[in-house]
Amino acid sequence: MIHLPDRHAKAVFGPHPSRIHALVMPWKGFWRSTWSRREGMGGYWFPIEMFFFGLLFVAVPYFASNNIAAHYLETVWDPEIWLDRQIPVVNWMIIPYAALYLFYPATLAISPRDDRGRAELILAMQGLILITLFCTFFFLVLPAEIDLRDQLDMDSLSGIEASLFGFIHFSDNPWNAWPSLHIVHSYLLARMMTLWINREHGEKPLAKAFLVVLWVEYALLCVSILTTKQHYLFDLFTGLVTAMVAWKLFEYALSLAERHSPSRIADEADWA
What we know:
Strand content: under 5%
Structural class: mainly alpha
């Protein structure tokens, strides 16, 4: 069971501006078992375990809502505008679109192997879970079918393009329109990777090059959700707004790791 921080914890971590801010604080007791195993396999087990948490609490709600909408729901409000069908299809942009799925393992691989990094990774996972549930609410209460795939010319695709489009169309029904979780998740993960790389690797040329590639990929991904006919313009706009607001909440939670030691956070959150 997830508990909000109690009054004593608020005295250490707060007071909070709102209950929403309190919700992104370390979930009391929830991560105790995970935290106790953080040194397993030389510290490498911790990101692996967080990956499985992501599958359970992020991937499952997304794909469950996607299939519920596709099989049992109808469009309540259609966000399509005339401009959506004027945007051209760009076949190769399925590559940056599908690259979202590399953001998750990359974030886990880049996360620092010290207790501060682990506490930050937990807070980031909490944020991803909360924002996924927030978006899932709209997917189910205001479902919208993304009726654009008829614009694709499947015969014009190259081998890798056809494989990626086939995988996306097989695994992801044209629902879960807005806000676009493709945009929300990739932005939040890119910000986390940027935070860690700047802190841990500073001025290293390779680190700078990686960040350039990362944010170019993010820009391409934003365009790709339109040019692959996976989303409407409204989905992009609401995804960007949601991502930026969510990052502000992320920053509020992550500031704990700057103000307090990981051991103090773990003690107050009842992880130790």
